[in-house]
Design brief:
Elements (H helix, E strand, L loop, with lengths): L1 H10 L6 E4 L9 E4 L2 E4 L1 E4 L5 H13 L6 H9 L4
């Protein structure tokens, strides 16, 4: 929250924070209401992804000589956490 506030005051632009949770975490609190101060983040839960399916799709694409997209590369980065 403090880092987002500092970034906002430096850049003077809206801040959107997404927190990525490993597959061990299925639900969390995403809002803080401290009266005059309210803060919220978006949660992305790795538990909702099928790592075996993502791996198989990327492997098949490579074996067929296809090029990986930016989304494919992000999937590779997150596969160990799924």
């Amino acid at each position: 929250m403090l880092a987002d506030a500092m970034l906002y005051f430096r850049e003077r632009k809206p801040i959107k924070t997404i927190v990525v949770y490993s597959s061990e975490i299925e639900d969390t609190k995403t809002q803080i209401d401290a009266g005059a101060l309210r803060y919220g983040v978006e949660a992305f839960y790795m538990v909702k992804l099928n790592g075996d399916k993502a791996y198989a799709e990327i492997k098949a694409k490579l074996e067929a000589g296809g090029e990986l997209t930016k989304q494919d590369l992000m999937s590779i980065v997150f596969l160990p956490m799924i």
